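Re: weekly structure request thread

Next one in the queue (258 aa):
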Amino acid sequence: MVVNKAYKLPIFRVCLEVFQSIKSKMTSFMRVGLLPYIMYFIIVAILIGYFKQLTGWILLIMMSVSIVPPVMGLVGVHRIFLTNKKDTIQIKTFRWSRREINYCLNLFEILILNLIITSIIYAILENVFSSSAAVARSVLDENEVWFKMPLSLWYIVTLLFGGYFVSRWLLILPATSMGKKLKFSEAWFLSKGNGVRLTFLITIIPFISALVFEFIPVLDSKIYSLFITLFSLAVTVFEIGLISLSYQYLLSNVSINK
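Done, posted below.
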């Protein structure tokens, strides 16, 4: 495998193609992505309603089953982004195969690695800034902006460092969805020279969209809850599109330079 280090992932083109793909394949996304999540919400509602009655193995089985619909939806959405519109009809709405199992395992591994990396970064930053925080407490009130600013920077630095690693490893997921095997080292090699761009696409954009919720007033309304749910699903689909098309672009770059 040979990667052209000079090749730069076209950020604007990737975002534009994600929008175009969602628009042209909307029916397939609704069928493969939305229906499994409706099933997920039904299972969660049952779990909440009968939580006290469910005990032992029954509770464990129900909680395990609740993972199945989201994974089916995630794998299906990846495949739609990476499949021609004509062939998306062949993607079943409800399916559970080796792809979904491997996807689950790979996602779990990535989450564990992310937890380890962010914990290490957090511990380092805590050690570096602890003395500064002590000085700040003696001079500033904890509610002042100048006191909170280092803590915000601390969080952002942790997010960016963790996001840099995770963004490159997430390329494994679209490969798994298409029935291919991509190792962590191969995902890292595939994204060589594009780590910062992937971090922007896969970490920064979702972070910015998450900030939108900070400016939306919280309302005790079913319509509001439905809006937030649909907005979250839309952001998730868009994010999966960014990961999938980034993988496709980087893979095409490798094949050209073999």
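The chain has two domains: 21-96, 100-258. The CA atoms of residues 80 and 87 lie 9 Å apart.
Next request, please.
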